[in-house]
Design a protein that fits this description.
By secondary structure, the protein is mainly alpha-helical. Helices cover 73% and strands 0% of the residues.
């Protein structure tokens, strides 16, 4: 199924209306909660490493599920039969994935926002990770990349590629 240009513009406008406020809220949240994130990450089971790994795995998984849910909506004929779901269930799954993505972006953005110099304040998450837990940063980016890549590969395999017509199915 190919989308017409008008349908593509309509879908893009809908996605922009959802994504832009969510990204702005995540950026604002990473600024607002910057001092609390270090305390939360230290009290998390597994410490700072456990907290950041939980965040990036949930974030990467939510990206894959969002892409899959959009593919299921746009081209349902490409979705494997055992993954097809009614539209209300898809909407609920989409909302859960969006909320998960935007919530996990708060600490991810805080971990990326390194503008600190030599006298960086360790109450900010990036400075704390850089100064106190330097091994966490490379690990979380590798895990984030792998999780997102596996999720997107699953999206392609289960929802985005052409399906062969099978008689009787």
């Amino acid at each position: 199924m190919e989308l017409s240009e008008a349908e593509q513009r309509k879908l893009n406008a809908k996605m922009l209306k959802v994504m832009l406020p969510g990204l702005v809220a995540s950026g604002t949240g990473s600024w607002y909660f910057r001092d609390d994130l270090v305390v939360l990450s230290q009290s998390w089971p597994g410490g700072v490493m456990g907290f950041m790994l939980t965040v990036v795995v949930l974030g990467g998984t939510s990206i894959g599920s969002l892409c899959g849910l959009v593919c299921m909506e746009v081209a349902p004929e490409r979705t494997v039969s055992w993954l097809r779901m009614p539209s209300p269930v898809r909407v609920v799954a989409l909302v859960v994935s969006l909320v998960t993505l935007f919530m996990t972006l708060v600490p991810i953005l805080a971990a990326m926002s390194g503008r600190g110099g030599v006298d960086c304040d360790t109450s900010a998450l990036y400075c704390y990770l850089r100064d106190e837990e330097p091994s966490v940063l490379p690990v979380i980016w590798i895990v984030y990349g792998v999780t997102t890549a596996v999720g997107l590969a699953c999206v392609y395999f289960f929802t985005a590629r052409e399906r062969e017509e099978v008689d009787g199915c």
